[in-house]
Amino acid sequence: MREDATAAAVPGPDAPARRPGRRRDGAKDDVILQAARELLTERGYDGMTMDAVAERAGAGKATVYRRWPSKVQLTVDSLLCSKQVTIDELPDTGSLREDLLTIFTMAGRMKNDDLMSGLLTAVRDEPEVRSVFHEQFVAGRVRLVREVLERARLRGETAPGADLDMVAAVAPAMVHYRKVVAHRPMDAEFAERLVDTVILPLATGTPADAAPDPA
Amino acid sequence: MREDATAAAVPGPDAPARRPGRRRDGAKDDVILQAARELLTERGYDGMTMDAVAERAGAGKATVYRRWPSKVQLTVDSLLCSKQVTIDELPDTGSLREDLLTIFTMAGRMKNDDLMSGLLTAVRDEPEVRSVFHEQFVAGRVRLVREVLERARLRGETAPGADLDMVAAVAPAMVHYRKVVAHRPMDAEFAERLVDTVILPLATGTPADAAPDPA
């Protein structure tokens, strides 16, 4: 599994045929990027090191450094290929409530929130990480909910005065807060309560019928 | 400022008059706890070390270890005395909208969200940290909004069907997501939009009048 185990830690000049290039060995690149994501999830940005990534990937440090000269660049690339759900993968149930419950069920299973929490100090301190993080974990999620709301709007399900952009931002905020900050499960019960007492009333302009038992 | 600068790194037995006790020297304790909070904010839990806390506080390592044998305990105590706003400190404006804007204005100025983001890996991995974190940064904030909603309920401002416990959870989730995850300012414009298009419609059962320009 290991390669380059005897290579120097600092990358040296390669022969012309082996010029540095991130896509040169796609399979090995993927293993390294996957190792980086795992370590970011387990230890956070501050605890992740290039050495640990090389070891986890079974790669030489020189191999890692040749392709990603810095931790910031490795982090950015590892996030770029992080799995994102898009509207095309989401079945159109024809009902806003069902579409939202589908999203929240998927969100409850995703492991990305642990990855997110380990990145928040880098989001603050590293502009390059902040940018890719925002696209992958904020804008992408808001957009998915916004597109589901748009389908509902075209069906006439939404209220004319509803601020659908703001409603779209509430959903991922509540998922993140629930899972990572409050550290409680994003289960079916919470998903239904979130949909029925927050998202649907805001989107459709119809107040929730009755308050469930206080938590 | 420094004391115990020559003390051994590992705490030794003290004379009877100097038995270990966290409240023995309140002023020095406060300096150490403040240093811990600063370092947790700047470097996160994974990057904070007992050595760095001792140095920042101008205290000997032995002094720090005598009072807090582990990083977990020091972290827990430093969070326990983190400043929390309670309902008693919040002026009763007589209007839910004004009460909420007051809370969001304060939330926009608080530095605690940076502290929070550095703690999220510890929240996942250390049950003791999770517990104090939850009380200080989750339950306390939700409770503050819930109490403001309760004042509004007693004035007859809220809708009978509104799930006020859920509404109370939306506010801190949106503040955290805005400041720490989306990394954008919790300014007056966002606070008004949040109040007028999300919190007030949910609490009062009155749909928002018109959608602002999409962001």
Question: What oligomerization state is this entry in?
Answer: homodimer
Mean pLDDT of chain A: 83
- What is the number of E strands of chain A? 0
CATH topology of the largest domain in chain A, by name, is: Tetracycline Repressor, domain 2
The CATH homologous superfamily of the largest domain in chain A is named Tetracycline Repressor, domain 2
Terminal Cα separation of chain A, in Å? 51 Å
The largest pleated sheet of chain A is described as:
none
Poorly predicted ranges of chain A: 1-22, 210-215
Share of helix of chain A, binned? 55-70%
Reported CATH architecture of the largest domain in chain A: Orthogonal Bundle
Q: Helix/strand/pairing class of chain A, anyone?
A: mainly alpha
Strand content of chain A: under 5%
**How would you describe the shape of chain A?**
elongated
Succession of helices and strands of chain A = HHHHHHHHH
* Rounded Rg of chain A: 21 Å
Most extensive interface, chain pair and sizes: A-B, 52 and 52 residues
Question: Could you give the topology of this structure?
Answer:
2 copies of one chain form a homodimer.
Chain A: H1 26-47, H2 50-57, H3 61-67, H4 71-80, H5 96-109, H6 112-125, H7 127-154, H8 164-181, H9 188-204
Helix pairs in contact in A: 1-2, 1-4, 1-6, 2-3, 4-7, 5-7, 5-9, 6-7, 7-8, 8-9
Task: Describe the overall structure.
- 2 copies of one chain form a homodimer.
- The first copy, chain A, is an all-alpha fold and 215 residues long.
- The first copy, chain A, folds into 2 domains: 54 residues, Homeodomain-like (Arc Repressor Mutant, subunit A); 118 residues, Tetracycline Repressor, domain 2 (Orthogonal Bundle).
- In chain A, 64% of the residues lie in helices and 0% in strands.
- The first copy, chain A, contains 9 helices and no strands.
- The longest helix of chain A is centred in the middle third of the chain and has 28 residues.
- Chain A is elongated.
- At the A-B interface, helix 1, helix 6, helix 7, helix 8 and helix 9 of A face helix 1, helix 6, helix 7, helix 8 and helix 9 of B.
